[in-house]
Amino acid sequence: MASSFKLLPKYIDPLLGGNRKACRELVMSALDSGMAPRKLYRELIWPALEHVEKLYREDRINLAEEHMATRINRTVVDHLQSRLDRSSLLGKKIIVTCAEGEAEEISAQMCADLFESDGWEVFLLGGGIPRDEVTSLVGKLQPDLLMIVGSKPTDAPIVRQLIDHVRDINACPTMNILVSGGVFNRAAELWREVKADFFAETASEALEIAGKAEPRIPEKRIPGAPKKRRRRRRPPLLAQAEGMA
Which one of 99, 112, 117, 216 is CB 3.0 to 4.6 Å from 84, fit for a cystine? Predict the structure, then answer.
């Protein structure tokens, strides 16, 4: 059986060339040889997404090439999703949302697929959802975890605003918030500055962290006491992320 690590170089060339047929055939051949869809998610598609994003960020491919590759990856993910094994329900809920963008949508979709495969009840929102609507859904569903995916520097302030809003409203006090995506991978402590509870570099790591996480301890609030108003400053890494845009 061929290793998915050996498949990656063979996949990248047709991916960047927009050769949909070659990419599909390579993945189908791997499946036919007995390679698990989860392994392809983890060791082929996710690294391919990161590689394309890195090439585009470094101006080594143009927007047309990035869009072609991203859409091929999405087609492959849509096909693999139906072949994932399904574990028994865990009785846990997760909401997965992301910043706007095709690459972010695919990353969020892959995370949602893998969490569902592991037995979580998954609610995938995608990108472009106003933060008050995300917060309203959090209050309605009372999930164990909110996962937010963002890859661009401009995503970081938006993620911070969403987390602040969810916490200020106190929509689900015991819910943990986990962030993932390129911008958080590149700035090691940025996840702390946006006030997330956890950070995962990959979908597999997100599953591992979520599986071990205890419910968040709610902040103690005195009934009837006015909410403290404090002056907010831009944390250094968050300001740096904004400056990279």
Answer: 117
